[in-house]
Design a protein that fits this description.
214 residues, mainly beta, seven-stranded antiparallel sheet, two-stranded antiparallel ribbon, 2 helices, 13% helix, flat
Amino acid sequence: MRFRCLYFIVVVMLLSQPLFAADDDSSAVRKKILPGDWTFVSTPALTVNEKLYNNWSAAGNSTLVFVFGFNGTYKYTHQQFVWDNVHDFSLGVDRQDLDGNQSLESVRKNEDKIDLTSTISKRLRSAWNINFSVNFKSQFLEGKNYATSGNSEYTLVSKFMAPGYLTTSIGFEYKESDWNVSMSFLSGKTTFVTSQEVIDAGQLYGVDTTGGRR
């Protein structure tokens, strides 16, 4: 019994010795990792454009266009890495006078974009970094191919996530203060078509939809 107790005490002392030595060693250097800083730049924009044709010999359709855009850049700078995020959105609608009675009866989408990019870069040497990047693209509203000048006859060609594109890449980056060059040695692209209506319209965007694949 005494042998077992003595053995237990010796084992505990041996296991705990490195811990006590680390606490007592005042010459040990502990590297302090400083917290990072965020930089935010957001730019919303609303553009309104009007063209009115009345008794105009060169002809043309009167239009009223609204385009809303948003561009955001969010950067996290750390001692060990840099995380860049870019958000680019736009959505525009125009109203057109197709029959010349100044009624602006036709309402159509003229711009629609979702573009998100996120990149994490780690410095290697001087201006060289190794990075991992993810990019996502799609749209907000339905995309239509109109068969006539009116709005009643059209073919549905796209919707949100039909298509949607996800691109990932790993590579090297040479980055200066106002420009950069990225070289990817490994990348992959995934195409999503999640709308059955778009598939039924024959818009597959290269996706093999047999067996319910999307």
